[in-house]
Amino acid sequence: MSRHVSFDESAAWFVLRRLDENDERVLALRRVSIPSAAEVSVVAEMIAHAFGLSSLGVVLKIRNHRGRLIPLNSSIPANSKHRPHVLEVTRFFQHLHPKPRTVPVAVINSSMKTRLQAVDHRVQRLDDLLPQVKLQHDDRLTQELRSLDLKLKFLYRRMEVADSHSWKGMLSRAPLW
């Protein structure tokens, strides 16, 4: 019984390689039909289901016959049984190995002591300058109050001059319109 592939789906052949179980061997060959409008999660689930895998907690990688990665989506290129894609199953962060600590703890401690001393020195300097800053603030406030007082006196004199004039019912000079 042969399966008929319609225009809205493509069929691709895959072999399984279980790197999550530290097995480099090729285990199974399967043909998977992928709908052309399927989402990535659906495609991953279809491929995992074809091999009887759970796609939770693992990473699925697809490589072509040259060993290059292929995006896992609905446009996986069709291939033949003799040149299948390789489905690699790996764990999250499987191939990452943390590097040993390169900075000794003594260096970290000395740098932290230096930073703490710098912060302590800045705080001490600010405490020493606090009375001087308060005096400067008071002087600046006094100067601004004097300036404001002079401006108010000026405005008060102008208002007195303006109040001293009164309207006598006619213009003393003809306007220059």
Compile the SSE list and pairings.
Elements: E1 9-18, E2 26-35, H1 40-50, E3 58-63, E4 69-70, E5 85-91, H2 105-164
Parallel strand pairs: 1-5
Antiparallel strand pairs: 1-2, 3-4, 3-5
Write up this protein.
The protein is α+β, with helices and mostly antiparallel strands. The protein folds into two domains: 9-91, Phosphatidylinositol 3-kinase Catalytic Subunit, Chain A, domain 1 (Ubiquitin-like (UB roll)); 119-159. It is 40% helix and 20% strand. It contains two helices and five strands. It has helices spanning 40-50, 105-164; strands at residues 9-18, 26-35, 58-63, 69-70, 85-91. The protein has a five-stranded mixed beta sheet with strand order 2-1-5-3-4, covered by helices on one side. Strand 1 and strand 2 (26-35) form a beta hairpin. The longest helix has 60 residues, at 105-164. It is elongated and about 115 Å long. The termini are far apart. The model has no long low-confidence stretch (mean pLDDT 84).
In short:
It contains two helices and five strands, in the order E-E-H-E-E-E-H.
